[in-house]
C-alpha cells in the first residue's frame, strides 16, 4: 500500500460516517494522522464513531455540512469525502419523492459540497474530493432504478470535477465498489443477495483501495478489481452486456423479487 503525502495533519470531512464505508474511511484517515470531522444524519452514530477515533462529530444533513465542518476544524478543509448515500430501490414507477431524495443525496449533496469548497481550493491550488459512487455508477443494479441512475450522475459529476480542475491542483477520486458488508447492503434485499453478497467485502478494504488510489493519483477506485473488466465489456459490447444483465434480471424475477 503506497504512502499518501499530505494526509497527516490534514483537515478531513467524511459524510455518512456513522457506519459502513464512511466509518471505515474516517478510521483510516484518523489512523494516518488526519484531523477528521465525522458527519452523519444519525447524531448518535456520528458521535460514537468520532469518540472511537478521536475525531469531531458534526451531525446533520450532508448537503450543508461544509460551514459547520470548517468551524469545527478551525479553518480550511483539505479532503472532503462525499460518502453519504441512499440505496433507493424501485423501477420507473418509484414515487417522485423516492427519485427526488435519491437525486438530492446521491448527486446534489456532492454538487453543493464542491460549490462550497472549490473557491478556496482553487485559490490555494490544492484540495481533494472523494466521491463514494458504487459499481452501479459504472454499470447498473437490477431492481434499483433511482439508485443506478443517480450513481451514474455522481460518477459523471466526479469526472467533470476532475477534468475541469485537475490542472489547478484539485484531485478527485471516485470509489466504485460492488457489495460491501454494511447496512446498505442488507437493505438491497433479494437483488443484493443475488448480485452483491457473493463477492461482498468488508468496509476497511474500501479504505485500503482509496489510499492506494490516492498514492498513485488514480481517479477510479475499484475495491473489486473485476469491475474494470465489466466496465470494459459494457463499453465494448453493450448489447452483449445488456443481454447478460437481462439474464440476471430474469433470474431475479424467477426467484421472486
Secondary-structure map:
Blueprint: E1 11-14, H1 20-31, E2 35-38, H2 43-53, E3 56-57, H3 65-73, E4 79-82, H4 96-124, E5 127-132, H5 135-138, H6 145-165, E6 170-175, H7 183-186, H8 189-195, H9 203-215, E7 220-221, H10 226-236, H11 238-255
Parallel strand pairs: 1-2, 1-4, 2-3, 4-5, 5-6, 6-7
Helix pairs in contact: 1-9, 4-6, 10-11
Report what the structure shows.
The longest helix is centred in the middle third of the chain and has 29 residues, at 96-124. The protein has a single domain (11-227), classed as Rossmann fold. A seven-stranded parallel beta sheet has the order 3-2-1-4-5-6-7, sandwiched between helices. The model has no long low-confidence stretch (mean pLDDT 94). Strand 2 (35-38), helix 2 (43-53) and strand 3 (56-57) form a beta-alpha-beta unit. The N and C termini lie far apart (40 Å). It is built from eleven helices and seven strands. By secondary structure, it is α/β, with parallel strands linked by helices. Helices cover 54% and strands 11% of the residues.
Structure in a nutshell:
54% of the residues lie in helices and 11% in strands. With 257 residues, the protein is of the alpha/beta class.
Strand order in the sheet with the most strands: 3-2-1-4-5-6-7
Tally of helical segments: 11
Q: Helix content range of the residues, please?
A: 40-55%
User: Which class best fits the helix and strand makeup?
Assistant: alpha/beta
**Biggest sheet details:** 7 strands, parallel
Distance between the termini: 40 Å
Question: Could you give the count of β-strands?
Answer: 7
Provide mean pLDDT, rounded. 94
What would you report as the Rg, rounded to the nearest angstrom? 18 Å
CATH architecture tag: 3-Layer(aba) Sandwich
Low-confidence stretches at least 5 residues in length (pLDDT < 50)? none
Could you state the order of secondary-structure elements as H and E?
EHEHEHEHEHHEHHHEHH
Compute the number of structural domains: 1
CATH topology: Rossmann fold
Strand content: 5-15%
